[in-house]
Amino acid sequence: MLKKICFKHLYSGLTLGLVILLHATVLFAGNVTLAWDPPTTNEDGTPLTDLAGFIIYYGTTSGDYSQSIDVGNVTTYQVSNLTEGLTYYFAATAYDTSGNESEYSYPEAVATMAPPPPPSPEITVTDSVAPTGDLQIPFGNVTEGSSSNQTVTVTSDGNAELVIGYIAQNNPLSAPFSILNDYCSGQTLSPSSNCTLTVRFSPTATGLFNDSFDIPSSDSDENPVTVSVNGTGEAIPVPDITVTDSVAPTADLQIPFGDLTEWLSRDRVVTIANDGSADLAIGYIAQNNPLSAPFSILNDYCSGQTLTPSSNCTLTVRFSPTIAGLFNDSFDIPSNDSDENPVTISVSGTGLPADSNNPPAIPELIFPADNQEGLGTTIEFKWKESTDPDEDTVTYDLYACEDKDLTIGCITATDIAFRWSEGISYASIGSYGTWLLFFGMGILPVLLGVTRNRRKIALLIAVITIATVFLVSCGGGGGGGTGDSSGGTTSDSFNGVSQVVSGFSVDTAYHWKIVAKDSYGGETESEIWSFITAE
Fold first, then answer.
1. What is the pLDDT of residues 492-511, one digit of tens each?
2. Hey, what domains does the chain have and what are their CATH numbers?
3. Of 533, 275, 531, 528, nearest to 404 (Cα)?
4. Which pTM was predicted?
5. CA 210 from centroid of its chain's CA atoms
């Protein structure tokens, strides 16, 4: 005979591994898991070598087993479908390959199937924004004037009906939040059923908004459930036109052309930029408010164009007086910018008689960049050459001071006349060349008595200047390189004027400007720029 076996453990499937050591325990779900140690010897003490399996016997009376299950050669087994509220008694036998079966195991195992828990409603609330079960609805960024909807789902996860009260009655939502399509308030949900409602965010202003609302129900331990909502209202994308021109101050919507001799022309560039967040549609410029002579528009790359945000276009305005006098006009720039439509640009200029003097053009910055930091105490300043409408010779004065009014701690360089173009430098002219240049630029016109015919003078000066440079370069009296503070240069190649200035203090902010002068008293000042020297 096989040796009798004993149950080692008794587990409940519901209580997940609760050990029942041969005594009755209340269990749920009608399931019991039995575990035992297999026998290793026969009843006579000889080794068991042909164990084939086990049979579970059980019933509701001790020692009277009305049901049995051949479970095969395993050492654990779950008995299912037991009646709740009844007590069961379990025993097991082992059998070998010859069909021999052991006696019942002893002591028998006892388990009581407790009645199910009383019905209890259970509420679960989820929404359509991950993580869905955190009771928070972030709407994110929504443009003012538009709406965003999110769905809230209420589910009955208990074993009894879930009665839902009136949602957001005690803790209502305020604008810009609202509830619509509410299919839950006042409803009764059977187990495993659900209902939905919609929460809307409709900002009418920009900014961050927060709120919450309640979901009351018959769930005793979650009543009410509170859901938080938040969202940010963003401004409506709109175009924003910005118009600048090439005459400082660049954004004043005024283009002063200054004095210009009749029959000459002067151009100014107008830039139209879209600084908004939507496309800027530009109409036809100067159509409703056109320019009249001596003003005109050319190279118009803006009319009828659509500018995406951060893009721009340009057009050129020309002043070409044919008679002497003061001229004023304006033109319009239509667009879809609702609060700046149209933009009106005013233009002005004075036509001078043919024998009048026109000042040089405004000097334009090359180096150092405006607000540049970390410069040394010796600086090579560079700026674009100023053209002169009358073709007069142009010289420059440089002022660098420690205050914006250019009155404190100033370092100056005056009568700067050396120019570099395409790598050719004109500098350090010797005494003979200097005398000849001075003679050609100043004395000769007086001697010739032609001071009012300045174009002929300019041509003569140009010839003399070129000859002077040629003589100097061949005669060994001068050369390139860095000059002194009155007219320094470098070997760099650029289209412009250069001046080396020394003596700046360390770790100091400076403001500087260039004054362009022609030989007949005309002057034009640049903008005031700034830089900071290094420590």
1. 455 789 999 999 999 999 99
2. 7-113 (2.60.40.10), 123-234 (2.60.40.10), 241-352 (2.60.40.10), 364-428+479-533 (2.60.40.10)
3. 528
4. 0.47
5. 23
